[in-house]
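hey can u run this one w/ nicotinamide-adenine-dinucleotide bound, need the structure tokens asap thx
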Amino acid sequence: MDLPSTPLDELPQRLAVLRAQAERGPRSYAERREDLYDLRAALKINLPELCRAMDADFGCRSRHESLISDGMTVLSEIDHLISHLKRWMRPQRRWISPLFWPGRAEVRFQALGVVGVISPWNYPVNLALVPLATALAAGNAVYLKPSEHTPRTSLALRDLLRSIFPRNRVETALGGADVAAAFAGLPFDHLFFTGSTAVGRKVMAAAAPNLTPVTLELGGKSPVIIAPGYPLQRAAERIASGKFINGGQTCIAPDYLLVPEAEVEPLVTALQAQARARYPDIALGPDYTRIINRAQYERLRDWREEARSRGARVLPLIEVEDELADTQRLIPPTLVLDAPDDCRLMQEEIFGPLLPIIPYAKFEDALQYVKQRDRPLALYLFDHDRGRVEHLLEHTIAGSVAINDTVLQFAQNSLPFGGVGPSGMGSYHGEAGFRTFSKEKPVFRQARWSGMSLFKPPYRGLADRLVRFLTR
Ligand code: NAD
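ok here u go:
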């Protein structure tokens, strides 16, 4: 399906309309809450249609996964914004040094103006609407550019937003990389980008001439370490949930597993049991999501074949006939053992249902393996030893961490979500998002009488004694 494309010269015009409206004055708490209620209601009503659009865009997108990750999680985030917004908007009194008494200090939270949001295809509703809802909660106007790789969902999102918001408050731009590149170059008050690290670099470069602040939610390899002795059935179940959802096309999906040498084979068996129990009829059943498009499918197939040709053991956990797999863009959950370190599977973010397993001799070796690589977007440890958990938390840096599970840190409204280093900068979700999209304006209020009036030339007598005392 071809997605209509917003003409490039329309982009700055639309931004000007949004800005003119934003500059008419701040939006009250009641108005923002109304926006969130409207968005929530429209999302709820349109969920079946959005699920159908995602299903068509992916060529099979599990309806339940759509309801969970693009429905339930977004509704819960909007509810969290509604419940806490009033408190977050309140000016906060801050401590003040006695030197400045009886002056007062406070921080006020103000809308930045117009926020640009660029979203990817893998969770096309969630990753568009959560930043959008949060930016609206902070009182901003929003210009959204959803992904061209989910054309039906992007169109449905545009229609949904037009049905509830005037176009001078929420606008949508549609189109491919050319529109996206021009969009990233618009002088927004903040630009929020979710996507690959490579495109993230371009976005930051495009924002630089305008000094537009950016939040970059990027990708990267998210390792899982299984500590010696951790119950493998439980680990397999939770790894399968995080890796198999959305056909592995999740930014924080487990990218590879570090496993004690002696536990590799039992883990393979446990993961196989998980895959078979979940997808008894993977090609005909409705529960396993396909690879989004041919380019992504061929990339994954090539990486898998490269590893195989270089000596890796490739173990599909469910057998699917080649031709069927190819016509359906279906890659079953697949383990990869003994892959050489310099093959693409081991070097780049996998973003699909291939899962390399790397055996380790000592726990410290596994930790070193992670530390020697880029700081991950997410890091997972399965371990009941508190000391070791603490050691890992102290000695590694990652965008987010889950202990004894995978991906669920994303669903915690009260935790900031964001990467670090090559996996991104800035954060959102809940209050972290509210602050990202607000100017935290510091205000100092001077009193009628001010001790500071003593500090002025000529510095003799009391002024001189005071300065000497305060620099003692
Ligand atoms: P992508 O970077 O190819 O595309 C994301 C968006 O960027 C799309 O809307 C696209 O139109 C736009 N774009 C393309 N070229 C652009 C340019 N020159 N300037 C500005 N925008 C441009 O990513 P994708 O393939 O849609 O998504 C997969 C990647 O996203 C993976 O790396 C994944 O890890 C990452 N991701 C990260 C998160 C997170 O929260 N950190 C969430 C989901 C996906």
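The chain has a mean pLDDT of 97. anyway lmk if its weird
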